[in-house]
Design goal:
Length: 485
Amino acid sequence: MTHRQPSFIAVTGRNTSSCGYCHSNEDTSITFGMWAYAMSCRDYQDLIDRGWRRSGKYLYKPELAETCCPLLTIRLDVSKFKCSKGQKKVVKKMRKFVSEGRGQKSNDKLDDEDQMDVEEPVVGERLEEPAREPPDAPTTLAEKPLRSNVEDTGNVAITTHPSKRAKTSTTELEPLPKQPPKHESHKSTAKQAKPPKPKHAPPPPQDILSLLRQAEAPTDHTQSHNIKIILTRATFEEETFNLFRKYQISIHKDRPEKLSPEKYKRFLVDSPLMFEPPATPHTPGYGTFHQKYYIDGKLVAVGVLDILPYCVSSVYLMYDPDYGFLSLGTYSALREIGLTWSLRERLPECKYYYMGYYIHTCQKMRYKAGYKPSELLCPGTYKWVTVEHATPLLEKYKVGILAQSPEDVIDQQASGNVGPHQLVELKTRALNSITDDDLWGLMAFNDGKISSFGETPVYSEAKEEVKELYAILGEPLISRMILVT
């Protein structure tokens, strides 16, 4: 990633709608949005690290001090991930299905904590839309979309590893070659004494890829089913659209006439992210991808993913309801953690798995915290804190500055400045610090050319919304954006 292309955006402003989490009858869900025509992967990484998320080319951020159900960005450091008992049982279920053809639900019962770990991500899930249609794309972008100015090395992104017992392949990247032990003497042939093993030593923890490999290509059974998982650039395919349609009708109860190929393409194929070809061998590059799951040659699930400089970000999942007994929501999340683990071997900075938003006020949406140890983004400081650290404040106030000590919370409780009030104060302070000169000097695209925002015909009309965006993004990030007016 040697050169950063500018990102082209248009402000779409505040959006209010009914809430899919608390099922309010009024428009109590409040976000602020913008439309991204083209965006560098680095810029989008910085945006999600400030609480943004995308639905197609529409980017939005919850107004946390006002919205009914605060949505907090959640991530997992995959190098520290440990499978819970409930998650391991989902992997075991897949293993039994692949090796023995057992398709029924497991008789193993989970306690409440384990059950939360394996909730399927369907409650309140929605495809967000902007409050108003954005301006038409600049002609140069409409005719030839931008792509990163990085040389295409032509490297293969994914290597298939066939099983010896069945035609099974996975999306795992080729493992790095093992390095010889340091300080190894080639002259000495004497065997070194090994330290005695302690009695009843616990077995070493298995990494997530080992667990998944054993499920998808077990070596102790002949296989009854073949599973294949591939990673491809996001493109429209009839097979994937048909799966999306079946999923939306069955799981989300969408009306069939509302599910057109155009809608599917708009939300789950179109992406503002400019693809950056791989600079490191055997990696897929940065951009938007579809991770596809096939069982016996039939497409049963597709995960829409953004691969970014520091993370794999989950955008959406669709699966065949006929295979719901395999807990594909949980299994695909584990598979995406496995993909991140594989990338980390060659791209050490890419070690996080972003799961979208965590909604503490919705009991059924707390399952994401079951992928431990997860962190939440503090909406006031943009620092990361553990879920355990944030929970007491979320229980009492729903939202607030999470990255603070218990002593600070006590002091702020005494002054009454705690919870959502803190976020209102921070935003007000940010708005008051922005001058007309700051807004005037922003870059804008108007009438086929780039100029200062203050020179565009819409300056007076649009500057209050742009000022709000400025306050949300901060000066370093908004200075890298070009406003389409």
